[in-house]
Amino acid sequence: MELVAGRFELYDRIGDGGMGRVWRAFDRKSGRWIAAKQLTHSDAAMVLRFVREQALRIDHPHVLAPTGWAADDDRVVLAMDLVAGGSLETLLGDHGALPDAYAAVLLDQLLAALEAIHAHGVVHRDIKPANLLLDATGTGMPRLRVSDFGVSVIMDEPRLTHTSMSIGTLGYMAPEQARGAEPEPRHDLHAAGVVGKRMITGQPSRGLPENWPSPLWPFLARLTDPDPRRRPSSAADARAELRRTGLLTGGTPWLAEPDPPEVFDQLAALPRRTLIDSPPTPTPVDPGTGRRIAAPARAQRPARNSGRGARKTALIVLTAGAFLGAIALVVAILVILLG
């Protein structure tokens, strides 16, 4: 266990994001388990992307946005909700192709999330199954959460790459995105269409067929049209088209299938933690008698050392202030250089 900023206890590593490792952690302040993303790069571009990600506060049931952050020396972590069911990539690896109705529910949730993300002026730029997390709902109604905003961009703001450089994952990027076009919401819709094709075919993104016998296919073909002008103009319009397929019944028809999709809890069990303070030290036991050994009385510190805690606190405050000041300076310099 590693403690960050006197608050987050990092236990086991559960994944890797675009900018760092993701840990299951215990938040001593809130008394609950969370996911903590720890920055693993120290260059200016990564620091700025990290700052931008933690600044996102999109409150939506299908968006996994940071809920807070903390810094300790050269370590910075973002705190977010803990999602136990793994990713859509995990589900596809376990189950293969998904039933049309199940895929339609996940697509609807993804498009609802994109509608909220785009309403905040943000383009995600890296929609793919590995970045779509699932709650552990078993064979019931799935619940999807869009995660990892490390390469997202706020439209009309300075960016960290040259205009002609493409950002995203090959196989999911729209053709114009791969050519370095300005980020816009229809790039995310194209990626959502590729995700949909993967769900109903079970095939990798670079091996998708030209056609597939599914009532979802015409809709997915529209989302992934090479010409952005022929795609739905927004996530809201795409959701309206999806509803017209008749697959969103509100029920769970996949349960009638011999092998329905099941989202398992992918995280190992951990001891229950409810204390906000650090865990108590075990009482020592005499190996001969089996009796507990009483702890010796703690001697009172001389008055001359009473200022040491204040000096240590001041040092921590100064260190944290210097770190945050460095981040602010990096942001200011990059904005000036890229403006």
TrEMBL record:
Bias (Low complexity): 286-304
EC numbers, comma separated: 2.7.11.1
Keywords attached to this entry: ATP-binding, Kinase, Membrane, Nucleotide-binding, Serine/threonine-protein kinase, Transferase, Transmembrane, Transmembrane helix
Alphabetical list of InterPro entries matching this protein: Kinase-like_dom_sf, Prot_kinase_dom, Protein_kinase_ATP_BS, Ser/Thr_kinase_AS
UniProt-annotated stretches for the region Disordered: 274-308
Stretches that traverse the bilayer: 314-338
Annotated signal peptide: none
Any Pfam family hit: Pkinase
Occurrences of domain Protein kinase (ranges): 8-255
Binding-site list for ATP: K37
Amino-acid biosynthesis in keyword set: no
PROSITE patterns: PROTEIN_KINASE_ATP, PROTEIN_KINASE_DOM, PROTEIN_KINASE_ST
GO molecular function: ATP binding; protein serine/threonine kinase activity
Enzyme class per UniProt: transferase
Name used for this protein in its record: non-specific serine/threonine protein kinase
